[in-house]
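Course assignment 3, question 2. Fill in each field.
Student: A.L.
Task: Predict the tertiary structure for the chain below.
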Amino acid sequence: MPKVATSLKDTAFLNAALEGLELQKSRIEGQIQQVRALLRGRVGKPAAAGAAPKPARKRRVLSAAARRRIAMAQKKRWAEYRKQKAAAA
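Answer field:
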């Protein structure tokens, strides 16, 4: 935070500055709420205060055999891609 010069110690000036900052803060908080509502797809509805986020979806567990089949299929696709690329060149 910047240092306050000794000439700015006037309480009326500081009170006016505080009012202005609080006004800006409330305006910005309102805009933040609007953006959050847009992100949730609920335009026009106020965001629920203290609403807990949805829990993350559980990841599927693949067996070793399934991972091996996926890897082999990917290797087969890449081999076919390289074969077509070599034939075109």
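Instructor remarks: The longest helix spans residues 11-40. The chain has two domains: 1-47, 61-89.
Grade: pending
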